[in-house]
Amino acid sequence: MPKRALVDHRPWLLLSIVSAVAYYFLTDNQLGGTWLILLKGGACMALAVYAWQRHDSANAKLIALYLLLCSLADMALELWFEIGGALFFAAHLAAISLYLRNRRIHLAPSQRILAALLLVATPLVCWLLSSSPAVGLYGLALGGMAAGAWISRFPRYRVGAGAVLFVISDFLIFARMGGNLVGVADLLVWPIYFSAQFLIATGVIRTLRGELKASTD
């Protein structure tokens, strides 16, 4: 990315990074619950605004909706875990819709196998880690989102990798729920999760903008 591009041309990306970093380092501070919740939600909210402003297509609006729902879920989790989970479930459905609208035409057998593995193994692991049928059901949407991202036409090493990182961050949360990896999860969940969202948002929008530029040349 060109020097000062974040500041001069991508202020919402910069704001998302600042919000994410501030939330991570101020979590144990006496800043106050309300402000921490707003910082947490602000990370994905800024990414949603970035997506909304950078492209006018229905695909861009879908990724913006996904990020908005994730932002609301991030904040809701601090107050009511079940509501946060329901919002994330809805976010994954929005992402699945986007990825299915943009399926890759030609898929290698290995790509099909990995997508199927993500779809099947994700809810199973979610259930095993949490011992909760509700979490296992949520895992169906999570796995569908990751599988859809992997078979979409968006770059796998950005959007696909971001979706897999999202799965990993949730695995850590559910492991913590079961009393495992508590210290590791506390340290790694947020950085992995935000990295996932940043990769997904920028990967989708850059692809759409690249196509728009190519069509006008």
UniProtKB/TrEMBL annotation:
GO cellular component: membrane
Record InterPro entries: TMEM86B-like
The name this protein goes by in its record: Lysoplasmalogenase
Principal subcellular localisation of the protein: membrane
Membrane topology listed for this record: Multi-pass membrane protein
Top-rank taxon: Bacteria
Subcellular location: Membrane
